[in-house]
Prior knowledge:
Blueprint: H1 2-7, H2 10-26, E1 31-32, E2 57-61, H3 65-75, E3 88-93, H4 109-121, E4 126-129, H5 137-143, H6 146-152, E5 156-158, E6 166-170, E7 179-183, H7 184-188, E8 191-195, E9 197-201, E10 205-207, H8 209-212, H9 220-225, H10 228-234, E11 243-252, E12 265-274, H11 277-287, H12 296-303, E13 316-320
Parallel strand pairs: 1-5, 2-13, 3-4, 3-8, 4-5, 8-11, 9-11
Antiparallel strand pairs: 2-12, 6-7, 9-10, 11-12
Amino acid sequence: MRAVIFRNFVTIYLLRMERREFIKKGLGAGILTGSALALKPYPKSFARHHSNQVPDLVAVKGGEPGVLFDKGILALGGMKKYVKPNQNVVIKPNIGWDTSPERGANTNPELIARIVEHCFSAGAKTVYVVDHSTDEWTRTYKNSGIEKAARGAGAKVATGNSESHYHPVHVKNGKSLKNVLVHELILESDVFINVPVLKDHSSTMVTAALKNLMGVVWDRRWWHDNNLHQCIADFPTEIKPDLNIVDAYRVMKRNGPRGVSVSDVVTMKYQLLSEDIVAVDAAAIKLLGREPGQVGHIRIADQMGVGTVDLTSLDISRIEV
């Protein structure tokens, strides 16, 4: 669907060809530029897995990020369920902030490396890691640890710092968000994997899977000025990830999204995985001690049919490492 949308724009197609030539020339540098706390019990809603079928949502706790993902993706059916041979994969972490991993503002780099490895093991042709950073992207990519981890695992690290990377998409079912510029790698991808870090947010109460999609568009400020929660809910009616992996290893409980210090962060050692972007956010918000109905964009996305907040209706697998 994403590729079909993209190909409908003839002029964009020409731009894409020019962009690909630019990418080929730039790969030599490895960067595509111009683009200790005890574990708490599971929430009660995480305690359901009553069959041998693949669960709707997986909640894993108690290990390091890579191991959590190994267990979680296996429970969902393995990465080969999502990635086929010779496909192009785009992984979208949160790489928004110029801070170290211990601050919990960005996705854990160990997790990103492990996801990349699984994609290649499944037969991926190319794996890109990309975000539209809030802070200056070269410092953010470096100091987050994600650039080094992704490249070390074999991924191509792309940027979202230039409008030339973005192309128009009409959000036909959007209520506030009708048209949006989306990063070309998302539009061209065969597989889109969304990997947010869970944290507090001053504007939206929480950053998780739905909010993380703001990093694949160009003009995020427009969203803030035009019913932010509705725009966040509108976007995945048109562009929806194939898989969502919420990193809740280090969780920023206050002063988000940037945080002030490591004192804002609690080591929870959780990870949540689901194809349902609303369900995974509904589960994630509970780890912050809040309810899905308290968060506007989660509530609205449920009402619009993007996914479900009713965790009792889902088959949920809980795994402890």
